Amino acid sequence: MEPQPLDLPLRPRRNRKSEGVRALVRETRLDAAQLVYPLFLHEDKADHALESLPGVKRYGPAGLLREIEAGLKLGIRAFVLFPKVPDRAKNPTGEEALNPEGLIPRTIRAIKKRMPEAVVITDVALDPYNSDGHDGIVRRGVILNDETVAVLCGQALVQAEAGADIVAPSDMMDGRVGALREALDDAGHESVSILSYTAKYASAFYGPFRGALDSAPKAGDKKTYQMDPANSREALREAALDEAEGADMLMVKPAGAYLDVIRALRDATTLPLAAYQVSGEYLMIKAAAASGWLNEDAAILESLTGIRRAGADMILTYFAPVAARLLARK
Ligand code: PBG
Hints:
This protein is α/β, with parallel strands linked by helices and about 325 residues long. Helix content is about 40%, strand content about 15%.
């Protein structure tokens, strides 16, 4: 029996009939300028491939400048720096974070001298500098809030002085955004922006990052300062505080398992919103692709598009250069 045509005036498939029509009705776009490229650096001259993050390197000074230059050519405008600090420079108060001749300030100056147009974002937190491996100062097993905030202000000032465009506190101490704003303004750095890690969760997906920097906590976990993965209302509370304290941009981290939180913050604030596709999210795609069961390029673009669709204006991702190349080809 011949099937009868359906009497169907509404056929959504008409809007998917060709790539040209699909491009016309596409709701979410991805652009290299919306990507932020996280870069690891160290004191060694040579670059070092990271076992925990296949395809990612920890850079020496020359390699780092080359990687940023290549990123700029691909249309990536912003870069966030993460240092591996030698053990001998670590102590319980993370004092090395205040050294104006430290790895980060030296690197910022070198970038800004060669490529002043590169947007340099710095991480404000003590974990790479702190011998306890925590984002804050530890006393008798307790992560101290207010004492930590005072050091973070000094750290941000050193970064601003060296030429950072945006400082990004990732430490989750209470009150740090307001304190950083005041410290920056008092020192004449009122044009330095604050990108706050507003909703940073105590996540298993940071594992490969800590491997890359040898920055895992020596004891305990980060649950007294990073957020409980079970909570989303709490993210709205953090967002309201960050906004009131003067943050210029907010962030949700990780991204993939927290798309609802990205959407909730997008709907609750007019501030620009970032999301961080973290090291474990990167590794899941890389490992699955290496097994041969996943199309890597397609999975990269789909994961980033999903994060944009949820409401992120910008995405921090280790895939930045690969994604920028894929987008240029499309
Ligand atoms: C530390 C910091 C972490 C990341 C960015 N900044 C690790 C942590 O909080 O333990 C993780 C990023 C990633 O996993 O890609 N302040």
